[in-house]
Amino acid sequence: MIEPFTSEWLRALGDQRNKDCRIQSIKLLSESYAHFCRGYHMDTAQIIRDGLMPAGSAAGQQITIAPIPFYSLCEHHLLPFFGTVEISYTVGEFILGLGKFPRVIEALSARLWMQENLTTALADILTTGLKPKNISVTLTARHLCMEMRGTHMTGTQMITRADR
């Protein structure tokens, strides 16, 4: 599906390799970006619905899940940013199976984002599905668009937080 675009892109970059070598690169690059953006085909609301349980005696408890690793792509440069997510919430009506948190994060982060918007979207999706009394979502990430180009600030982290 994206292989014709990938072929033109490599040529535009100046790639002059032989046809057999380029065909392999095109295939691998196309498969990689399809994998990196697989979240567009994943239903985060359904993942949450599948893991919801009545809160019962857990109502009112504070729960923190961390660190949950994530990988995403910068929507501006199509380069990776990656790090960890911390989710803290006060139980309201429901609790969510522990394994569903990384699945929701994977489904959402496997799309093109700015970190600030990913943080907000994750907080909103969890708030809508989980119905907590309150929730805080914090992402801490390194951005290869900043490390490989621009300022070349290797190891610098960006921290974003959304509270609901």
Tell me the number of strands. 7
In the CATH scheme, the class of the largest domain would be Alpha Beta
Strand order of the largest sheet: 5-2-3-6-7
Backbone CA Rg: 19 Å
CATH topology of the largest domain: GTP Cyclohydrolase I, domain 2
What count of helical segments does DSSP give? 6
Question: Would you mind describing this structure in some detail?
Answer:
The structure is a single chain. The chain has two domains: 3-36; 44-163, GTP Cyclohydrolase I, domain 2. With 164 residues, it is of the alpha+beta class. It is elongated, with a radius of gyration of 19 Å. Helix 1 crosses helix 2 and helix 3 runs antiparallel to helix 4. A five-stranded mixed beta sheet has the order 5-2-3-6-7. A two-stranded antiparallel ribbon has the order 1-4. It is built from six helices and seven strands.
